[in-house]
Design goal:
mainly alpha; 223 residues
Length: 223
C-alpha cells in the first residue's frame, strides 16, 4: 500500500542514499536488493516483509554484473519501493508478494534508464569548452553537483515506484487472481534465478554453493 507521507519521504531519502552507493559514492554493497529491501522494511516497521522481498530480488539479481558502462537494471531504489509498498499489505498474501517482485524487476529497468540519462548529463556538465580550464574549486563543485543529481534521481525513482506499486496493490482486490499458483511461481522464479547465477561461480565452486544452499534450507527447516 502507499505509505504515509513521513514514511514515504524517509523511504525516498533511503532510495537516494542507496542510489549513490550503487555507483557514485561508497559502493559499500548497501545497494544490494537484500540490504536495500531489509532497510526499507525496518523504516516501515515490517523488517520481515523487507527480508522476504529482498531474498527473492537478490536471487534474481545475482547474475547481473554492473561492469563499467554496461546497461543493467538499478536494483536499490526498486527494492526499496517494492519493500515499502509490500510492507503495507498482508505479509502472507502471495499475490501481493508476486506483484511487488515483478514490479521491482520492471522498475529496476526504469531506474537503469535514468542512470544512463544522468551519465549523459554529467558528461555535458564536466566536458570543458575549447581552451577552458577548470579550477580545483570548480571541479569540486561539479563533483558535488553530480552527487546531488544522483541522490535526487534515486529519491524520485523510489517515491514514484512507491506510489505506483502502492496504488497497484490497493487495487489487487478487484482482480480475480488465484493465490494457489503464486507460491509455486515465486519458488520457481527464485530457483531459476539461482540456477542462472551458478555460471558466475563456476564448477569448482559448486560444492561451496550447494553447501551454502543446504545450510540455508536447514535453518529454514529448523525454524
Amino acid at each position: 500500500m502507499v505509505p504515509d507521507v513521513p514514511i514515504l519521504l524517509l523511504l525516498g531519502l533511503l532510495g537516494g542514499v542507496l542510489a549513490l552507493d550503487g555507483t557514485s559514492f561508497g559502493q559499500f554493497m548497501l545497494s544490494r536488493p537484500l540490504i536495500a529491501a531489509g532497510l526499507a522494511g525496518i523504516v516501515t516497521g515490517s523488517p520481515h516483509a523487507g527480508i522476504v522481498i529482498g531474498v527473492l530480488l537478490e536471487a534474481l539479481q545475482l547474475a547481473v554484473l554492473p561492469v563499467g558502462a554496461a546497461r543493467y537494471p538499478e536494483a536499490a531504489p526498486a527494492a526499496v519501493a517494492a519493500a515499502g509498498a509490500y510492507a503495507g499489505a498482508a505479509v502472507d498474501v502471495p499475490v501481493a508478494l508476486m506483484a511487488a517482485v515483478v514490479f521491482s524487476m520492471a522498475w529496476g529497468r526504469v531506474g537503469g534508464t535514468t542512470v544512463e540519462w544522468l551519465r549523459r548529463t554529467n558528461v555535458a556538465i564536466a566536458v570543458p569548452g575549447e581552451g577552458q580550464l577548470f579550477s580545483p574549486g570548480e571541479l569540486e563543485r561539479m563533483h558535488l553537483k553530480a552527487l546531488g543529481l544522483d541522490f535526487a534521481r534515486g529519491a524520485v525513482v523510489t517515491i514514484t515506484g512507491l506510489l505506483v506499486l502502492g496504488t497497484l496493490l490497493e487495487t489487487l482486490g478487484w482482480i480475480p487472481f488465484q493465490e494457489h499458483w503464486t507460491r509455486p511461481a515465486l519458488a520457481l522464479s527464485a530457483a531459476g534465478a539461482l540456477a542462472s547465477s551458478l555460471r558466475l561461480f563456476g564448477r569448482r565452486r559448486l560444492p561451496l554453493f550447494l553447501a551454502g544452499a543446504a545450510a540455508g534450507v536447514a535453518v529454514l527447516w529448523l525454524k
